[in-house]
């Protein structure tokens, strides 16, 4: 176990969070910890934005160190301004971060391998290695030599910055960076829930702990349902399994046959990931790395939502701070970009002050003749402001937009009416949130005869719509959105947690009607995959606050002082003991049921006997596995990894989610054509052309002049000739051609060096 490296990375995380503390205090002065839980994401945002822009000219350790100095100077200037720094809040935030970071380090140390199967670790590690080799940004694509990457790499850039700062080998930094993102996710969820609960004068730390649990450890209810199926009637099991397209006999779970993968594939033809699954699986992937920064943006939105701030300060947050933060999130995962603008819109729509006050001369827009006109005005003005934030964000992300988005957008389009989710699918995936939210909103409804009639009519209309249209989401999720929206207007005791509830519900409903169509896979597969992770994060924070309020009776008519907070609470009498006890039992059952997946997954993870695992000898070395599972290629990969710069290689086209293109994926050296993702990024025609070029280089019956032309066209320096190349293209005696010489051989791999001068002379003479 690399304890020195772990201590070094923790120290760097602590130092960066400390450097960002003055900025956090300035942004979140009214939060209970003065924003300490967001200090690390703030520092990394500032560092990476500056590095990103400077990196267009040069990207090296000196540039990274310079950006750190800029951050330190900025913090120093802010510290000189009578800012109150909450060091106790900082210590608490770092304690939460350390627990989460340490947990994932232990998970990854058992299985640190950067394997090709079961995810996209080859893509993620290849991007990290490409960044480490890049003299400037954007990095050259390791799977499409000679061209910049067309994938959002902001999160990988963070990992590269930390790798350069610590001087760590990427094979270790991959897992340490992954643990850092997980630590930030849990910490930011904890901090945001604390801040929202503090506004309600309820148990803020309890809310934070619950939010951290749901975002970091909770799973969906698929696993406990399978356990209960062992003692359930066959008819009930069949009702559940039919929509899931599972055999009823296979649904009951034998604990000894648990597989962590299955709970993320509940919905037919989609991926319904949640954070714990993703982090146990261990991809350093964009949709995971973006979530702490989405919560940071959400915290900024909450700061603008609150009415205490001066108008000029709120204007600075909206038009000065949010655009670069949203832009940066887009470079990490562009799937989160529209979601970030959506939460900006919702936060302003439900803000405690009219959003028009943020505009010059906007006070006249706050004067409306009716409640409906006021609501429509708030929605329209907030939408316009969110659009301005989006435009400014695009300007901040200028190079990213030009190099990546405009290139890959042509392969994607918006499509309507995908396959519909069934009642069972939605309940299994979202049930752990839907019931607590229903209880929470229900506790805020005054159940007189008029309201009961209105709720009954609305529920009946939505039920009929869902039944007749086949959209189960209209029955299960739409009522929460409608009720949340209305109650935010009618009940002042509801707050930002309900905005997050509405945001998540809106996303769930949206992907039932609209999806992004690309050439990767048919239908809404990727849309649900990327969007549902954001839903989980929003709802984890919201349910943390909701449960804390329910269990401590801090809801209308049920206020009670708790031992967690010293703030004064309402004088309204508390609920009967029986109600408090009943709610406590409900919360315990909810926590227990959502913990079942994590308990089984960790047990399987630790007890696995797969060769790539190291339960008996933990390590964070992500590349050690190749000497065990692919010893015939390990030496050649290591030799290539030692090459300086970015010499191009050519190897067999990599097959998706299989051992393929290891010479580029594990070293960052650009190959002519790697995994099939390039077809998604660049289009079918360009991809097919490179396929033909690689085949002409390797086929034995290719004329020498043609082979030389293709080698010269792609500026190939090394030919990787291993078992996959022999299997796919046959045997080719490269050493018999002029200008090609074998420079390394180990196991079943030969590496040939191409003499560029000889090849150029050959191609010019053939012309």
Overview of this protein structure:
There is one protein chain. It is built from 32 helices and 6 strands. The protein is mainly alpha-helical. The strands form 2 sheets. Strands 3-4-6-5 form a 4-stranded mixed beta sheet. It has a two-stranded antiparallel ribbon with strand order 1-2. A hairpin with a 2-residue loop joins strand 5 (740-746) and strand 6. Residues 557-573 have low confidence and may be disordered.
List keywords for this structure.
four-stranded mixed beta sheet, two-stranded antiparallel ribbon, 767 residues, mainly alpha
Counted by DSSP, the helix tally is: 32
* Rg (CA only): 27 Å
Percent of residues in beta strands? under 5%
The unreliable regions are 557-573
The helical percent reads 55-70%
Number of strands: 6
Question: What class do helices, strands and sheet pairing give?
Answer: mainly alpha
| Largest beta-sheet characterization | 4 strands, mixed
Q: What's the rounded overall pLDDT mean?
A: 88
Distance between termini?
Answer: 58 Å
Anisotropy-based shape = globular
Walk across the major sheet and give the strand order.
3-4-6-5
């Amino acid at each position: 176990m690399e304890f020195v490296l772990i201590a070094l990375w923790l120290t760097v995380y602590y130092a960066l969070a400390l450097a960002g503390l003055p900025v956090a205090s300035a942004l979140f002065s009214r939060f209970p910890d003065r924003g300490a839980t967001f200090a690390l994401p703030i520092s990394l945002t500032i560092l990476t934005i500056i590095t990103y822009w400077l990196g267009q000219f040069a990207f090296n350790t000196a540039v990274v160190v310079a950006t750190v100095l800029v951050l330190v100077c900025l913090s120093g200037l802010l510290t000189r301004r009578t800012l109150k720094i909450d060091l106790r809040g900082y210590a608490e935030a770092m304690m939460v971060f350390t627990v989460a970071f340490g947990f994932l380090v232990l998970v990854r140390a058992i299985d640190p391998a950067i394997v090709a199967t079961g995810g996209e670790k080859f893509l993620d590690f290849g991007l990290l290695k490409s960044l480490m080799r890049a003299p400037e940004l954007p990095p050259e694509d390791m799977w499409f030599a000679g061209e910049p990457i067309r994938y959002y790499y902001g999160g990988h850039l963070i990992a590269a910055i930390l790798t350069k700062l610590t001087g760590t080998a990427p094979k270790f930094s991959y897992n340490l960076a992954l643990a850092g993102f997980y630590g930030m996710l849990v910490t930011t969820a904890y901090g945001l829930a604390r801040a929202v609960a503090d506004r309600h004068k309820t148990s803020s730390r309890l809310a934070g702990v619950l939010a951290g649990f749901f975002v970091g450890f909770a799973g969906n209810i698929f696993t406990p349902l399978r356990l209960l199926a062992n003692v359930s009637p066959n008819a009930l099991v069949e009702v559940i399994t039919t929509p899931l397209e599972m055999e009823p006999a296979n649904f009951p779970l034998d604990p000894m046959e648990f597989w962590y993968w299955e709970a993320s594939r509940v919905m037919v033809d989609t991926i319904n990931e949640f954070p714990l699954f993703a982090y146990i699986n261990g991809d350093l992937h964009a949709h995971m790395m973006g979530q702490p920064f989405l919560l940071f943006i959400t915290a900024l939105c909450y700061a603008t939502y609150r009415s205490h701030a001066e108008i000029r300060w709120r204007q600075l947050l909206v038009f000065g701070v949010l655009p670069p933060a949203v832009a940066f999130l887009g470079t990490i995962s562009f799937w989160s970009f529209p979601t970030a603008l959506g939460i900006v819109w919702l936060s302003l729509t439900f803000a405690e002050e009219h959003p028009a006050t943020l505009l010059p001369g906007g006070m006249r827009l706050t004067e409306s003749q009716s409640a409906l006109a006021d609501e429509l005005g708030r929605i329209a003005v907030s939408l316009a402001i969110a659009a301005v934030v989006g435009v400014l964000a695009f300007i901040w992300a200028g190079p990213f937009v030009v190099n990546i988005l405009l290139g890959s957008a042509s392969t994607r389009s918006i499509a309507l009416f995908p396959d519909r989710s069934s009642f069972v699918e939605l309940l299994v995936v979202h049930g752990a949130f839907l019931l607590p939210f229903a209880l929470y909103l229900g506790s805020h409804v005054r159940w007189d005869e008029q309201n009961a009639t209105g709720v009954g009519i609305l529920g009946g209309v939505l039920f009929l719509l869902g039944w007749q249209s086949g959209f189960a989401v209209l029955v299960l999720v739409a009522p929460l959105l409608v009720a949340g929206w209305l109650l935010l207007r009618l009940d002042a005791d509801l707050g930002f947690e309900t905005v997050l509830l509405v945001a998540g519900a809106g996303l769930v409903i949206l992907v039932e009607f609209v999806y992004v169509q690309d050439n990767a896979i048919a239908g809404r597969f990727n849309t649900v995959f990327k969007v549902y992770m954001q839903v989980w994060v929003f709802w984890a924070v919201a349910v943390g606050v909701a449960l804390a309020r329910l269990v401590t009776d801090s809801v209308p008519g049920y206020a009670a002082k708790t031992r967690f907070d010293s703030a004064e609470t309402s004088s309204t009498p508390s609920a009967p003991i029986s109600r408090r006890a009943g709610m406590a039992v409900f919360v315990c059952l909810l926590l227990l049921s959502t913990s079942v997946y994590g308990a089984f997954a960790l047990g399987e993870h630790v007890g696995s006997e797969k060769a790539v695992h190291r339960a008996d000898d933990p390590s964070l070395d992500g590349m050690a596995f190749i000497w065990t599972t692919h010893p015939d290629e390990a030496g050649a990969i290591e030799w290539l990894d030692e090459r300086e710069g970015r010499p191009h290689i050519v190897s067999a086209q990599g097959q998706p989610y299989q051992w393929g293109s290891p010479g580029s994926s594990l070293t960052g050296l650009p190959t002519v054509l790697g995994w099939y993702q390039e077809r998604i990024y660049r289009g079918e025609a360009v991809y097919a052309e490179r396929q033909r070029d690689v085949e002409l280089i390797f086929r034995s019956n290719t004329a020498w002049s043609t082979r030389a032309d293709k080698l010269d066209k792609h500026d190939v320096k090394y030919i990787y000739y291993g078992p996959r190349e022999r299997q796919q293209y046959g045997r080719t005696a490269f050493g018999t051609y002029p200008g090609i010489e074998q420079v390394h051989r180990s196991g079943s791999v030969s590496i040939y060096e191409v003499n560029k001068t000889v090849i150029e002379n050959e191609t010019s003479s053939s012309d």
